[in-house]
Model the fold of this input.
Amino acid sequence: MRGDCVQTVKTIFHVDMDAFFVSVEELFDPSLIGKVVVVGGQKGERGVVSAASYEARKFGVHSALPLRTAAQLCPHAIFLNGHPDRYREYSHKVHGVLKEFSPQVEMASVDEAYLDLTGTERLLGPPLAAAHALHERMKAVTGLNCSVGIATSKMVAKVCSDQAKPNGVLWIQPGLEARFLAPLDVRRLPGVGKVTEEKLHQLGIRKVGDLAKLEEDFLRKRFGQWGLALAGKAQGVDAGAWFDGEIGGHEDPKSISHEITFGEDTNDQAYLETSLARLTEKVARRLREQELHARTVTLKLRYSDFTTLTRSHTLPRTTQLDHELIAASRKLFRQAWRSGARVRLIGVGVASLDENEGQLALIEGEKNERARRALSAVDKIRDKFGEKSVHLAAGMGGDHAERVHENPVGLPGKMPKKKG
DNA sequence: TCTGGGGTCCTAGGACCC
DNA sequence: TCTGGGGTCCTAGGACCC
Done:
């Protein structure tokens, strides 16, 4: 990117699917169209809304709202658990459509993506024409609506698609970024959440334009590195690691985790440890699927009063084996858990991921290779017959074996009725 | 209003090494 | 011996995103 090359002005698209989960549900059950629909779980359950139909939004229901609150606002709504596998399937279809328009596509999540369309004018026409074609093609192939933001940076493109919702297109021409952003609430900037918004409000800063007028030095003193990124955003410039890198480059995940909130808080040690082992097996399995090895294991606990803690441990070498990860997560749990305290959520994650096995593991050799092969076989059986079909009890891994079997087939969420 | 699950990035302090 | 500083790793927590 250096040398004699002049930095060309980029044309970045941000494509965001409209009410994605709800729209996919409507494809499978057209009777839902036009109804008040909430995806995320059933009325009385613990949990939050992951998507609400536009009809539901009229009642104040939005994503991240507790389900029980949604049920109060909207008792007549249709509550759906949702179908993650369908969303993934349609996400792939969306990706396929986008790739017709540019080789540089970056799926930022299941339902949104960035495209670099710099230099495609001769092929696709001007940005608005390309966006129109994309819209049509998306509808034809997937049956879904999307909104498109077009700008010279990912950040502004994202703000644009948000402003264009639903089913619209917004293009901010080069040079007009700051003028477009100025009248918007600071909250519209990606990266400014509840906390930052509140801090800015206390300084009398409500609009992006207010932010843009401040000295960088002032922001740096108040917010550190963050402040500098904020200053850049206010001018419409990509800032912070969040927007780094080429669009479309493949990146390995940085962490893998699974967690569960129980239907009811529990202080049953055996149950907690079994749940943790199940979650750890899932994590290990995903490591093997992605051919990754992890070195750091993190336990997460949330007590009934919602206080949350994490404890992590870095292993001397990387692994992807169930018994090693289970031993680590269980040890962390035993060290961290306030014995007897009721637990709302338990989770486990791995980080420091690496494609290669640790040196020691290679030397230690055969034993682990046998274990790895055995686990791959288990993964295949689970593919065929379901997660519940195989659980590794004693035996596997010898002295690393799991020792809690009180509830060997009990899955998180299917908790026995509490005892007294 | 009683707060999911899966991620990313940032900060800050302490250990340790040079 | 005292002092300082920088870099890196590890750990814990927190803001934020969809």
About this structure: Residues 269-289 of chain A form the longest helix (21 residues). Residues 393-420 of chain A have pLDDT under 50 and may be disordered.
